[in-house]
Design goal:
Belongs to the LysR transcriptional regulatory family. This protein has 307 residues and is α+β, with helices and mostly antiparallel strands. The chain contains 10 helices and 15 strands. The termini are far apart.
């Protein structure tokens, strides 16, 4: 028995609650994972897991062992990366998930520079707006906009995205330019609805001008759950958009979108990098997070939220 392999298999089973999911994330067979955990239990002479037809969970001894093994594996990773060569060149596979527009407009175009700086990091990038289960899907970190609703996650605040309201010239030519945000609550105006992963429903947008404050729900004939599709719908003239400025910059410059309500303020959208509380922040993850912060400082510089 390779004890390190067995410990890693045990940790993944505890985190995913399943031998099958643990095997998938370790890219091995369920049989292999089962054998490793059984061998570990035999070696320790302790039952580590409760097994049922629906779920696998740690016993009291298994939970205590899990906490120590997670730290041990983290120390082992630190020991390897503390060597001078590894310290200069972090290496290994890193699984991350970022919002689709952020991936296509900012992250992916900058990756040649990232890989030139860190050639030994293999980046598995998920580009989606869905809610990712970091444990079950064995994802090292996610970049997400909006306030975090999972208090169990560890997170680093990396940026505040300035927001604006926009519409396509074709839309404005068809229904006219709204003079006030509340005009979007009635005919003939429409917004493009965005269904967030947390609520499944389009949000209300808070806007402020001096002492006047409004919350705009809007009316829509289309709602989507993907940022790229949301932008495409606005460009097609299907309704008014609320966009981070990094998404609107090029369409506005090309005349494909027109800014609205420029004398109104919108609270910025916070952006976070989040990762599981039990996940060791390896050197490769630390340098990726630092790189994201550096990247966003250039493309979405910090702003002062309105009071």
């Amino acid at each position: 028995m390779d004890r390190i392999d067995a410990m890693q298999a045990f940790v993944r089973v505890v985190e995913t609650g399943s031998f099958t999911r643990a095997a998938d994330t370790l890219q091995t067979s369920r049989t292999r994972v089962t054998q490793l955990v059984q061998q570990l239990e035999t070696h320790l002479r302790v039952k580590l897991l409760h097994r049922t037809t629906r779920r696998v969970s740690a016993t009291a001894d298994g939970a205590a062992y899990y906490e120590r093994v997670v730290r041990l594996l983290a120390d082992l990773d630190d020991a390897e990366t503390s060597l001078s060569a590894a310290s200069d060149a972090p290496r290994g596979r890193l699984r991350v998930d970022v919002p689709a527009p952020l991936a296509s407009l900012i992250v992916v175009p900058a990756l040649p520079a990232f890989h030139a700086r860190y050639p030994d990091i293999q980046l598995d990038l998920g580009a989606s707006d869905r809610k990712v289960d970091l444990i079950d899907e064995n994802v090292d970190c996610v970049v997400r906009g909006g306030e975090l609703t999972e208090p169990s996650l560890r997170a680093r605040h990396v940026a505040d995205l300035a927001l604006g309201v926009y519409a396509a010239p074709a839309y404005l030519a068809r229904v006219g330019t709204p003079a006030h945000p509340q005009a979007l609550e009635s005919d003939p105006h429409r917004i493009v609805g965005y269904r967030g992963a947390r609520t499944g429903a389009p949000p209300a947008y808070a806007m402020q001008r001096g002492s006047e404050q409004v919350r705009v729900h809007g009316r829509h004939v289309l709602s989507v759950d993907d940022g790229n599709a949301y932008l495409a719908a606005g460009l097609a003239g299907l309704g008014v958009l609320w966009l981070p400025q990094y998404m609107a910059r090029t369409p506005v410059a090309c005349g494909e979108l027109v800014p609205l309500f420029e004398d109104w303020q919108l609270a910025p959208m916070p952006l976070y990098v989040a990762f599981p509380p039990s996940r060791h922040v390896s050197r490769k993850l630390r340098v990726f997070i630092d790189w994201i912060v550096e990247l966003l400082a250039r493309h979405a510089p910090a702003i002062t939220p309105p009071r």
